[in-house]
């Protein structure tokens, strides 16, 4: 490249390839790991209709991850399957909140998963995802703007679903409310990691791909505050207690999840399933 | 004419799970590009996570096996325009009903309510049991008149 002008052509991603990679990896990795965590609930959800609904949502979410990986295929020339399976822990860009286990125990051995944590994590996340998709829709990278329109259509039902659980459990009082409040505190401890846009934030915003972390968070609060007020819930301050996933910091939870996810891929990278 | 034959072939490609409805009737076909001997079929995915997409892709290619002029058939999924449930044709809605699935109701934005008639008895006394059904594009409902559970296609609108 000999052209070093500072001019930014909004439709040309080549001006800030790193920022675009980073953003796509964040979007893809977030959905990928949360869809996996959702799939671990299969057969364990509170009742059968929820089992059907949650697995459907997880399937949609994995579809979104696949689509973001496919958008990356064009930019980094690595196929989506390899992007999802072969990248080491330090290259993963998902928020740490989303990689955390569903609760104590193991899927196969005495799973004692935490439904309140799952409801809060998913509701807070899908609302943040909605805010991001709205920003991407107006963004300068056309393939991503188009993808965001498509994702938003499906997200409508996800938000409706988690909002129903969130509201009903908090209104129920008793143990349900106590556990929900505890879950809100736990999710808040790492919720900033979801809004975080990593080291390339400035470049992402300058290239017009997405709005700033601050702006996304403000919009999230605008959507959530009326609901939280009605439920008489005080939101604890958000933090990134477990580290910053956007910088490649991750926990053993992700390491374990990836080793399960990669089992088939490692046996036969060309397998189709 | 080749184009007519191509559309006929595409009409023979059905939803893998709803054998009466073709991908054209579902509104999945956006356009075709003929550049002999190459054909590109542009489809709109209904839901991004739909596992039937790969099957549909393979079935489209299979539908052109006997076309001597077309030696290369590509299927591409487009994200834009997004697929919405109002793309389902009149005939598609009829075929869905025949299969026992209520066609997607109109999306009523003000209330978020749907009005879905029972595909078996036509009653309007139906209730929504689960927004999410056996596949991403369907919901589960119940008819209070004939006491049958049934499925409906989810309304999808770009609001």
From TrEMBL, chain A:
SUPFAM superfamilies: Ferritin-like. This is 1,2-phenylacetyl-CoA epoxidase, subunit C. NCBIfam families: PA_CoA_Oxy3. InterPro entries: Aromatic_CoA_ox/epox, Ferritin-like, Ferritin-like_SF, PaaA_PaaC, PaaC. One of its GO terms (cellular component) is cytosol. GO terms for biological process: phenylacetate catabolic process.
Automatic annotation (TrEMBL), chain B:
Residues 103-154 form the PaaD zinc beta ribbon domain. It comes from Pseudoneobacillus rhizosphaerae. PANTHER family: 1,2-PHENYLACETYL-COA EPOXIDASE, SUBUNIT D-RELATED (PTHR42831:SF3), FE-S PROTEIN MATURATION AUXILIARY FACTOR YITW (PTHR42831). InterPro entries: Fe-S_Maturation_MIP18, FSCA_dom_sf, MIP18-like, PaaD-like, Zn_ribbon_PaaD. Residues 4-76 form the MIP18 family-like domain. This is 1,2-phenylacetyl-CoA epoxidase, subunit D. It comes from the Bacteria.
């Amino acid at each position: 490249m000999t052209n070093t002008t500072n001019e930014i052509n909004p439709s040309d991603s080549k001006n800030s390839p790193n920022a675009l990679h980073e953003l796509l990896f964040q979007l893809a990795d977030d959905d990928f790991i949360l869809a996996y965590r959702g799939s671990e609930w299969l057969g364990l959800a509170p009742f059968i209709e929820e089992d059907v609904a949650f697995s459907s949502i997880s399937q949609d979410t994995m579809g979104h991850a696949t689509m973001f990986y496919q958008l990356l295929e064009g930019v980094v020339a690595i196929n989506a399957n390899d992007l999802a399976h072969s990248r080491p822990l330090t290259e993963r860009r998902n928020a740490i909140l989303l990689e955390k286990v569903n609760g104590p125990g193991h899927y196969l051995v005495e799973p004692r998963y935490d439904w309140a944590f799952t409801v809060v994590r998913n509701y807070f996340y899908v609302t943040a995802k909605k805010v991001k998709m709205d920003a991407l829709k107006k963004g300068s990278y056309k393939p991503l703007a188009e993808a965001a329109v498509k994702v938003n259509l499906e997200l409508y039902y996800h938000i409706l679903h988690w909002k129903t659980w969130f509201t009903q459990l908090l209104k129920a009082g008793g143990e349900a409310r106590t556990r929900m409040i505890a879950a809100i505190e736990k999710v808040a401890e790492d919720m900033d990691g979801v809004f975080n846009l990593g080291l390339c934030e400035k470049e992402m915003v300058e290239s017009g791909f997405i709005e700033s972390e601050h702006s996304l968070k403000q919009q999230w609060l605008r959507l959530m505050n009326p609901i939280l007020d009605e439920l008489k819930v005080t939101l604890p301050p958000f933090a990134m207690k477990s580290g910053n996933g956007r910088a490649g910091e991750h926990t053993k939870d992700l390491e374990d999840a990836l080793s399960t996810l990669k089992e088939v891929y490692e046996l036969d990278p060309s397998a189709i399933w | 004419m080749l184009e007519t034959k191509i559309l006929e072939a595409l009409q023979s490609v059905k939803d893998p799970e709803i054998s009466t409805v073709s991908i054209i009737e579902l509104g999945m076909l956006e356009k075709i590009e003929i550049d002999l001997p190459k054909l590109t079929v542009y489809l709109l995915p209904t839901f991004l996570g739909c596992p039937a997409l790969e099957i549909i892709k393979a079935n489209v290619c299979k539908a052109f096996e006997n076309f001597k002029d077309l030696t290369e058939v590509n299927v591409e999924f487009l994200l834009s325009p997004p697929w919405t449930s109002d793309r389902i044709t009149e005939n598609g809605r009829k075929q869905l009903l025949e299969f026992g699935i209520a066609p997607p109701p109109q999306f009523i934005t003000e209330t978020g309510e749907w009005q879905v008639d029972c595909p078996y008895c036509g009653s309007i006394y139906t209730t929504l049991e689960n927004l999410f059904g056996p596949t991403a594009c369907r919901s589960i409902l119940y008819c209070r008149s004939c006491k049958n559970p049934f499925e409906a296609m989810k309304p999808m609108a770009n609001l």
